[in-house]
Amino acid sequence: MRKPLLILSAAAVLADPVVAADTFDIQHSRYRESDERVAVDFTNLKLSHEIGTDHTVTVNASYDAISGATPAWQAASPMYAVPDDVKHDADGQQLYGQAVDGRYLVRKVALTDTRKAASGTWAWRNARRDEWTVGAAHSREKDFLSNEVSLETRINHTAERNWVWLAGVARQWNETDTLAADFSTHRQSFAISSLTLGALVTLSRDSMLELRGYGARDRGFLSNHYQTVLRKQDDTLYLAADSRPRNRDSGGVKVRWMQAWTPTLGSQLSYRYYRDSWEMRSHTVEAQLTWQATPSVRISPSWRGYHQQAAFFYKPWKADEPAFGLRGYASNDDRLGKFDSHTVSLNGDWRFHPDWQLIAGATRYRQSTGLTANWLSVGVQYRF
Predict the structure, then answer these.
(1) Checking phi first, is residue 183 left (phi over 0); if not, alpha (psi -120 to 50) or beta?
(2) What is the distance between the terminal CA atoms of the chain, rounded to a whole angstrom?
(3) pLDDT digits (tens, 9 = 90+) for 322-337
(4) Which residue from 49, 82, 91, 12 is spatially nearest to 258, judged by alpha carbons?
(5) Are 210 and 258 in contact (CB under 8 A)?
(6) Is the pLDDT of residue 144 over 90?
């Protein structure tokens, strides 16, 4: 039976379990950044199974192959050890050394890694169709380990489900390898706690509005051990480690409006505001159309615009004076800088058999810093 488009659109975004079916998905994606920076090949397997009408179990497993290079400062010649009085003046900031000829260059540091990840959720619903979902995730790389647990709930304010309260909490524990001043490897940790509160409101038979507020608290080692910076005392430059505060509090709001214009055409428009204690601010606007071109073919183009303000301790490595002082936080990581970006995507699916569906997508990303990226994905879904 053909379902109203609004329900289909909401299900695609909100994973509404009411219209979910037992499915098995396999998908492969290729991500490539310009200038041969980062390349990722990603394969994901997903199994979703309903137990009666009140329980849904979902299991994911994925494998990433990551390669490429990231730009970072390096000494152009062998390095002297840092004098003890300079270490003392640096007040705990990590200094690697002083180039013999005093010259430093930005070079690409090669990276090759793999990531194995698994996650699962269990959702259950009561007689009022209120829903709770518990989840767990595990991810492992050569130099990084992550574990996460989460709990989400959807509480129906009325029996008609025209107003649904949304809430979620999550806790993530991470461990990463870092380099000490003598280039030996040490393991550091950091944790992320997050909270989301919101509501999903039915405005009319064809329109819905979602409001969310969110916050997160990061604690621990938050620096990037792949990145280096230059620090300066008088006229002497030293190669040093990327240094960031060990605490970050963040939060924001998101508003999303979903509208079914015709039985075969729907849209979503959303805005997201973010700010954190590192003085980063961002605005994100997204627009998406969903067109049921035929009973078996669905096409979904989308656009995403993003603007970000820089962290208070960021300085571009191309700056006229790229070196930082001997003390204080310091980073040349472009991801903490000011930039605008645009992302254009075209996704589609084709149900070529009652039990089989082909899913494909293409994405183009362009950043005001010159960075571009392409992302292609293709997969199949089996429904049983």
Answers:
(1) left
(2) 17
(3) 999 999 999 999 999 9
(4) 12
(5) yes
(6) yes
- The residue to which tokens 């820089």 are assigned: 310
Structure tokens of 258? Answer: 């979903």
Amino acid at 181: A
pTM for this entry: 0.89
Q: How far apart are CA 47 and CA 49, in angstroms?
A: 7
Residues 324-374: tens digit of each pLDDT = 999 999 999 999 999 999 999 999 999 999 999 999 999 999 999 999 999
Are the C-beta atoms of residues 191 and 172 closer than 8 Å to each other? yes
Task: Fill in the DSSP letter of residue 160.
Answer: T
Name the H helices within the chain: 5-14, 84-89
- Give the type of residue at 245: P
Q: For residues 152 and 168, is the Cβ–Cβ distance under 8 A?
A: yes
**In this model, does residue 8 exceed pLDDT 80?**
no
User: Cα separation of 53 and 118, whole Å?
Assistant: 25
pLDDT band per the 50, 70, 90 thresholds, residue 225 = confident
Mean local confidence (pLDDT), 314-329 = 93
C-alpha span between 196 and 152 (Å, rounded):
9
DSSP 310-358: PPTTB--TTSSS-PEESSS-BB--GGGS-EEEEEEEEEEEEEEETTEEE
Integer Cα distance of 36 and 68 in angstroms = 6
Tell me the residue length of the chain. Answer: 384
DSSP state of 87: H
The string of DSSP letters for 287-309 reads EEEEEEEETTEEEEEEEEEEEEP
**pLDDT tops 60 at residue 172:** yes
Residue 239's alpha-carbon distances to 93, 98, 183, 242, 247, in angstroms, are: 11, 6, 12, 10, 24
CB-CB contact of 298 with 312 (8 Å) = no
**CA 160 and chain centroid, separation:** 34
